[in-house]
Amino acid sequence: MRLSILDQAPIAGNETAREALMNCVKLAQAGEDLGYTRYWIAEHHDLPGLACSAPEVVLGYIGAKTNTIRIGPGAVLLPHYKPYKVAEVYNTLATLFPSRVDIGIGRAPGGSAEAANALSENFLQQVWKMPELIRDLLLFLENDYKSGNDHAKLSASPLPEVQPVPWLLGTGSKSAILAAENGLSYAFGQFMSEKDGHEITKQYRDSFKPRKKGDSPEVILTVSVFCAETSEKAEEIALSSMIWSLSRGKGSGIKGLPSIEEAKNYTLSAEDKQELARLKEKLIIGNPEQVKENLLGLKRAYQADEMMIVTITYSLADKIKSYKLLAEALKS
């Protein structure tokens, strides 16, 4: 089974943003050593506790600090940007790191309404134009874009020998159909979707239209996993992430990812306990055998070609250990 990493550059309560970004590098290096296929970093804006507002900058640094693992944004939020500039950025990365660059494409705002307005004008109108934005981006990446009435050719230089591989990311039917219509590979965010992912990925496969000869549908399933030597330890390291999510949802202002001890001491109301139980339903938590069984079951159910793992822990050591145990379990 192919495994990959999705990182959100979380800032623990005892860390600076710089330390969190250096942890991204260490995670990518560990993933490369463990045989993970790709390292993607999310794009979020104005979200306290996350340091991933500029994935294209972080990816340049990570690419220089690794050798073989594929790198990409998970995802570049296209409604905020002009497709031409996005193509220039990722063509540059693909020129620097040949045959290693993906470009995940998304359409979420990635933060507050105020952040969306500060990033771009008319965000909602741009979301409606998403099919057009994707078509333009693909034409720029393929160096096949005709611009203006005179059809002058416009190149998103530098032009790499191997272009970035585009993926469309999503959590619902609209994104799945859009990916299929454009012959794109599709990454389904199971960890953040409340919808029937089985039906959505089936829609994608059934509707897929090859962009060029030999193309076939390809699905990454993104899941949230916490793996440790024992199920009890896995529950502990997952608690920090769950309490942090709960706190952010309530706007209670925990600064950074709480430690395990802080998470254990967090005062929970009856409503909080219900919300934690709901959050936990989307997580895979356990020892290596338990996690392996869960992931293999999901892979079969979704007919996924690859599993992308997001793991948010207070301790970098716990995070890397989780990825290590998972990789070893699935190799056995």
Automatic annotation (TrEMBL):
Residues 1-300 form the Luciferase-like domain. GO terms for molecular function: oxidoreductase activity, acting on paired donors, with incorporation or reduction of molecular oxygen. Pfam families: Bac_luciferase. CDD domains: Flavin_utilizing_monoxygenases (cd00347). It comes from the Bacteria. InterPro entries: Bact_Lucif_Oxidored, CmoO-like, Luciferase-like_dom, Luciferase-like_sf. GO terms for cellular component: cytosol. Gene3D superfamilies: Luciferase-like domain (3.20.20.30). To bacterial alkanal monooxygenase alpha and beta chains. PANTHER family: LUCIFERASE-LIKE MONOOXYGENASE (PTHR30137). This is Luciferase. It comes from Mesobacillus campisalis.
